[in-house]
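The protein record passed on for reference:
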Amino acid sequence: MAYTRKDVSTLTGAERRRFVNALLEIKRKGEYDEFVRMHIDHYVSDGEGGRRSAHMAPSFLPWHRRFLLDLERALQRVDSSVTVPYWDWTRDRTKTAAPWTPDLLGGNGRRSDHQVTTGPFAYATGGWTIRENVTDGEFLTRDLGRAAAPIGLPTTSDVEWALQDPVYDSAPWDSTVTRGFRNKLEGWGTGSGSAAWRNHNRVHRWVGGVMLGGASVNDPVFWLHHAFVDLLWTRWQSRHREHRYLPAEPPGPRDSQHRRVVARKEKLPPWNVTPDQLEDASGIYRYA
């Protein structure tokens, strides 16, 4: 029977405690850091060699769907009642709204070094020391809204702009494509500066701190953010039922993306699963 992922703003006090405690427990056991390492390992950009599976590629959405499921299953081994809530950043847009409350993820980082000092993931509590990172920092950092150069969260119209596109993705299947739902949601835009960051990418930059790079999983908000991104994929699927994941076939040997992107029925690294198998998760979970 399918379980339910809820809007984080609707969680009861008990549900908040259970979610936080399960996260802290898998962190204590070392499981959480394995997720951080996996994301770092698969954070491959257009300019790098090899296959792109997690970012700047059509498989951005199924890759993170499976990543979320793995995290959710780890949490449920601690507490079977826990599911990953989603953060609707088109509605909960302030620095004090959920999930930035003391009983959930804590608040913004302090001005001097962006260290998060409130909530259960503050470094001082001893339960959330960062061990896998692209820098030497051991504490969680945030710069909500980016004080030095303010940036706003995406709006409902930004999301609608992506949802309206009936095509899932298009050649050359990377960060430069201007047509297709996947990149409009992932958010690699044209131009420079904050205007080039759309939807998913803009949220990472709004949160700031460790959410800015491949080690973004170090901030638990990563999961709430990607649960909402996954929810938006389900909405796109409902709206465009005749359209599916693309490319359906692997790019040929003369194509610049040959062996660089995952086609619909190819295995999605690092799992033994295909995008085709991940397109419908309705038998596993649903969104409230």
Observations:
- The CA atoms of residues 167 and 180 lie 5 Å apart.
- The domain at 3-287 is CATH 1.10.1280.10 (di-copper center containing domain from catechol oxidase).
- Helices lie at 13-28, 31-41, 60-78, 156-163, 181-186, 199-207, 221-239, 275-278.
- The chain has a mean pLDDT of 96.
